[in-house]
Amino acid sequence: MTKQHISYSELKIFTECPHKWHLQYEKGLSGFTGNIYTAFGTAIHAVCEQSALGNLEPEDYAEYFDIAFLTELKELDEKPDNKMIVDMRKQSRDIFHKVFPALQELFPGYEVYSSEEDLYEPISELKFIRYLKGFIDLVVKTPDGKYHVIDWKSCSWGWDMKRKSEPMTTYQLTLYKKFFCEKHNIDPKEVETYFGLLKRTAKTDNVEIFRVTSGPRKTENALKILTNACTLINKGIKIKNRNSCAKCPFNNTEHCRR
User: Fold this and answer.
1) Which segments of the chain does DSSP mark as H helices, in order?
2) Which of 52, 139, 175, 200 shows a CA-CA span of 20 to 30 A to 118?
3) Domain total for the chain?
4) What is the CATH number of the domain that holds 31?
5) CA 235, 240, 245: angle at the middle one, nearest 5?
6) Are 134 and 176 in contact (CB under 8 A)?
7) What is the pLDDT of residue 30?
């Protein structure tokens, strides 16, 4: 029986190639299994989460990051060289102490509404049962009554304008906003969405928080992609998109030959 939920990462993979989605999420084959960059991202996210929840003091950020980072590295198939590990540990110090000053500058007088909030909400636009599953990194509420949904993204030096406006990147926040509002019965006009870039190699501005539009038309477009994908999955359609083969981990393997 097909599982009853879909995450945004699954949706991205399905839109890239339904057959790749089938191999990973129905057959359970390993696709991309992570690297030192994803390990860094997971660890820096953990610092942001725990500090937002009030479980971590600034003087403990470095130790907490190091433990989380090294734990993630142990799970990697390919072990990175020690110099890269040392460099990334140093780079983390230029990020986590700037996160909350950046939030305070952009959202004066804010309070944390939730951190790592679970989403598991029904996609009511479908004629069958399917849920959107996700995690919202941070929601803050400002004195004017508005909610600000923030998704942290670790990167090297930052994103260019093309990446900042790319639909399949920004639709994540659009859908998270929709289902967050439905979960809490909040007017979407009272919710704004942001990406927070955590930049490892930037000389300045290691933390950049920028707003992403998520109005009704964009919500409609994102929802159409979500419901179309769910409908195809429900019908068992998993055709190959041969235009996406080049970077696929299953390309020219026993599981998928062109």
Assistant:
1) 8-16, 18-21, 36-52, 61-74, 82-96, 99-106, 161-165, 167-184, 216-235
2) 200
3) 1
4) 3.90.320.10
5) 150
6) yes
7) 81
Is residue 62 in a domain?
A: yes
pLDDT in tens, 185-210: 999 999 999 999 999 999 889 999 99
CB 211 within 8 A of CB 194: yes
* CA pair distance 50, 117, nearest whole angstrom: 13
In a domain, 255, yes or no: no
CA distances from 19 to 2, 7, 38, 224, 233 (A): 15, 17, 24, 20, 10
Residue 134: DSSP 8-state:
E
Q: Within a 13 Å sphere around the CA of 101, how many CA atoms are in the beta-carbon half?
A: 9
pLDDT value at residue 180: 98
Residues of the chain with pLDDT under 70: 1-2, 258
Q: Got the DSSP string for 178-207?
A: HHHHHHHT--GGGEEEEEEEEESS-SS-SE
| CA–CA separation, 258 and 246 (whole Å) | 10
Domain around 224: 5-244
Q: Which two tokens stand for residue 195?
A: 């990406």
Are 173 and 210 in contact by the 8 Å Cβ rule? The answer is no
CA distance 48 to 14: 30
Listed residue (99, 58, 115) closest to 209, CA to CA: 99
What distance in Å separates the CA atoms of residue 162 and residue 115, rounded to the nearest whole number? 28
For 113, the 3-state DSSP assignment is strand
In a domain, 252, yes or no: no
How far apart, in whole angstroms, are the C-alpha atoms of residue 203 and residue 37?
Answer: 18
